[in-house]
């Protein structure tokens, strides 16, 4: 990908949004957590990991329940907002003491498109492919698909949105598949590695990651990914940057 071969331009360094009380509470809960190879559970967070095969593709599923939406966070690579600032997901996760982390969007490869992270607007110009829609994550942890050409970034924050992910398209809305059978992202191949997030119920989420483009794992189409999300009960689901 292009962003692999260009220098990063840091526009701003992001201060942590965790309050000392939240950090202390999470740290204390983590000390008494029950952890296995496929699960994590403390007083506030429950994660169960499963692995399955769908359409000759290896699919990894994380079923996540939190006591409060405060535990659902986003983070920038290298803790910086800018152009083509990159880092491995595992590194960003470690830098932010994350229990579970996946790719988000690819805002840094674009010069336009709203960027809202943890309640802060970093960019407020409408993305070129705004018809894909964005995933809006509200303060109460609920999800909604919004379109940048229909509402301003400032209004989104006023409405209670704390995080906005701009990749897409939407996969499931109101429990029904909304992506077309042959729909893809730009010129992408029909079968790809995928990452998606969905909401099942209040503070109950599903995250799906699939391998692709290998002899062992073909990859999923967007429609197949939507089928997976719906099968786990997602009411709203959104396609993220699959790599």
Would you write up a description of this structure?
It is a single chain. It is built from 4 helices and 16 strands. The chain has helices spanning 20-31, 89-95, 153-158, 222-231; strands spanning 9-13, 34-36, 39-41, 45-54, 57-66, 80-83, 115-117, 120-123, 134-138, 143-146, 161-165, 170-173, 176-177, 194-201, 204-210, 236-240. A hairpin with a 4-residue loop joins strand 9 and strand 10. The longest helix has 12 residues, at 20-31. The protein starts with 8 loop residues before the first strand and ends with a strand. The relative contact order is 0.16.
List the helices and strands and how they pair.
Layout: E1 9-13, H1 20-31, E2 34-36, E3 39-41, E4 45-54, E5 57-66, E6 80-83, H2 89-95, E7 115-117, E8 120-123, E9 134-138, E10 143-146, H3 153-158, E11 161-165, E12 170-173, E13 176-177, E14 194-201, E15 204-210, H4 222-231, E16 236-240
Antiparallel strand pairs: 1-6, 2-3, 3-4, 4-5, 5-15, 7-8, 9-10, 9-11, 12-13, 12-16, 14-15, 14-16
